[in-house]
Amino acid sequence: MREQGSKAPGEAHVTRCVSRLADWGRGTRILWQQAVAPVAARRMKLDLYHAPGYVVSPRFQVPTVVTVYDTIALEFPQFTTPANAAYYRWAIPRGVRSAAKVVVPSEFVRSRLTGLLAIPPEKVVMVPLGISPSFRPLDCDEVAERLGGLPFRLPRSFALVVGNIDKKKDLPMLLRGYSHCRARKRDRMKLVIAGRPGNDRRRVLETIRDEGIEEDVLLMGYRTEEELAALYNAAEVFLYPSHMEGFGLPPLEAMACETPAIASGAGAIPEVLGDAAILVDSQDPQDWSEAVERVLGDRDVRSRLVRDGRQRSALYTWDRAAERILEVYRECWGSQCHG
């Protein structure tokens, strides 16, 4: 964003500039983040630079804002690749300390980041993420139309998981819980997992095979936002196992579609979901199966979760997030002009 005269950022003309260099692989992306972007900012005479993906170079000669969504690479490097962990553990502290403001999605991340890197709390601004308006209750015909073009047939009754198949999601534990639950119920509700293959795909496939649930688990891969909204609406219950989250959008998306959610009590999830979901603190598969049976078997519990989930999800909008980000820009711009 380039300022015009003395206008504040909210009044400025916005120009979209796209760099293909950042899409040419890890090496070129790091080169862009650390060296090319600062030069481009100087050449374009920017007054402010916002890096929305964890990393910003300290070489910028203008105030910078950086968004850090979680501290997983700093605290739990085993949940990412060694290359990612090494780069982020080097780059995140440098960028956070040099930035004028650091944006985080939850108070949990704010507390962890300030504690780990010893940065002033007032420098870190909490801006919750938002939910797309696409995630809303749909009628049966619209659900059928959106899912009609899928290359596989969805089961009539299923629990849904949304998210990349990564180590931090702890899907093998959930699969064992599902296997336990399925063995106790005759209706054999299926499990549908929508998300890109990640760094835990091999272990997930092994668990499915070891538990003998190949016919009951559907790995759908990546789905569009339109398809996801239909899946949320069609699911009986939404499941969100995770070792660590800095926010957690999928449970809120499910709630906005009036689907009850069960989630782990890790990281920022309790802060974000409050009492509108059933939180399972234990990593015991049986606890998950009992929570699912509670939602499916108790109408009062289900009704409360649908009602509270709809109200809770309505608190998180991208318009509110954008307004708060704009305030951060104004604060940085004002400091630059009057500092």
Sequence-ordered SSE layout with sheet pairings:
Layout: H1 26-43, E1 49-51, E2 64-67, H2 72-75, H3 82-98, E3 101-104, H4 107-117, E4 124-126, H5 140-147, E5 158-162, H6 171-184, E6 190-194, H7 201-210, E7 217-221, H8 225-234, E8 237-240, H9 249-256, E9 261-264, H10 269-273, E10 278-280, H11 285-297, H12 299-313, H13 318-338
Parallel strand pairs: 1-2, 2-3, 3-4, 5-6, 5-8, 6-7, 8-9, 9-10
Helix pairs in contact: 5-8, 6-7, 6-11, 9-12
Give a written overview of the molecule.
This protein is α/β, with parallel strands linked by helices. It folds into two domains: about 10-130 and about 320-339, Glycogen Phosphorylase B (Rossmann fold, 3-Layer(aba) Sandwich), CATH 3.40.50.2000; about 140-315, Glycogen Phosphorylase B (Rossmann fold). The chain is built from 13 helices and ten strands. The strands form two sheets. The protein has a six-stranded parallel sheet, sandwiched between helices. Strands 1-2-3-4 form a four-stranded parallel sheet, sandwiched between helices. Helix 10 links the parallel strand 9 (about 260-265) and strand 10. Helix 6 runs parallel beside helix 7, helix 6 crosses helix 11 (about 285-295) and helix 9 packs across helix 12 (about 300-315). The radius of gyration is 22 Å and the shape is globular. Residues about 1-10 have low confidence and may be disordered.
